[in-house]
Amino acid sequence: MRRVRRGVNRVLLGLIGAVLLVGGAAVLAAGLGLPSSWHLTLPDGWPWTRRDEVLLPAADRTRYTDRGWWWPVVIAVLAVVVLLLLWWLLAQLRRRRLGQLLVDSGDGEGASVRGRALEDAVAAEAGALEGVERADTLLCGRRTAPQLRAVVALAPHADPGAVLLRLSDGAVAHARTSTGLPRLPAELRLRAVRHRAERVN
Fold it and tell me: Final residue of a domain: which of 93, 109, 135?
């Protein structure tokens, strides 16, 4: 689910970026007078075809001159939209998954374990527990202070308290012991799986 959401976010960002890039290129080409110098035949009503044509005609710029709040509000809204898009982009580019985990091997050198391998091991052990339909894990944080996040889909008749106890005493404890970490903070989210109502005769 997380991978699908990340893919959708990137596709949306790509589409928004493509629209902004095409619009900016059209305005730049009109400002440089490329359509007229290259003798391009553009459709009727196409904006910004002449070098002296402005982005906003005088009628549009002076339409709300009697309202002093109009242009400050427009500029503020556009600035907020740009900041939100930049934040969205940086959130997609930021690497949340921990690639490697530094483990104390006892010889003073230390060893590194792939974060994906530990995630898969915890997810497999959690998914095999009674009352668990599916488990998705993510290792984040720093190499020396990792954190584990897990989303666990519960079976229809599972006891959430019992499942949580088995997870903390089982999969999470085993991951902490096997890596030799003094502590491994874990955030576990339990979700119920939707199921059909059973017919009783």
Answer: 93
The domain tally of the chain equals 2
To the nearest whole number, what is the mean pLDDT of the chain?
79
Q: Tell me whether residue 148 is exposed, middle or buried, using C-beta atoms within 10 angstroms of its C-beta: 0 to 12, 13 to 18, 19 or more.
A: buried
List pLDDT tens digits, range 71-89. 788 889 999 998 998 888 7
Residue 67 lies in a domain: yes
Nearest to 139 by CA among 130, 131, 148: 148
For residue 164, give the nearest of 182, 179, 152, 146 by alpha carbon. 152
**Cα 76 vs. chain centroid, distance in angstroms?**
26
Is 40's pLDDT higher than 60?
yes
Residue 88 lies in domain:
2-93
Question: Are β-strands 146-154 and 186-192 bridged in parallel, bridged antiparallel, or unpaired?
Answer: parallel
